[in-house]
Fold:
Amino acid sequence: MFEFIKKAIFIGAGLASMTAEKIEEAVEEIVKKGEISEKQGKELIQDLKEKSGKAKKDLGERIDKVVHDTLQKLNIPTRTEVEELRARIEQLEKAAEKKE
Structure:
């Protein structure tokens, strides 16, 4: 039963979008209904918080990769590339001023 409840929360709430407060509220409601013990509730809260953090991190990494890949496909320069070009332009401008 405990595993079923954990899976239901993962699916029903979208683990990556759950805040610590929402996790605690959801689990406290389950404890109040008597479906799990208080000890199981505390364990579940800790487990869900850890998994929520991991899910957020994984989602962020996937989004970063998709954005990076998309920018490469569109041949859009990255911030680093633009900054490098700015630095080169400044160097060339300074060198040109010295020649004048």
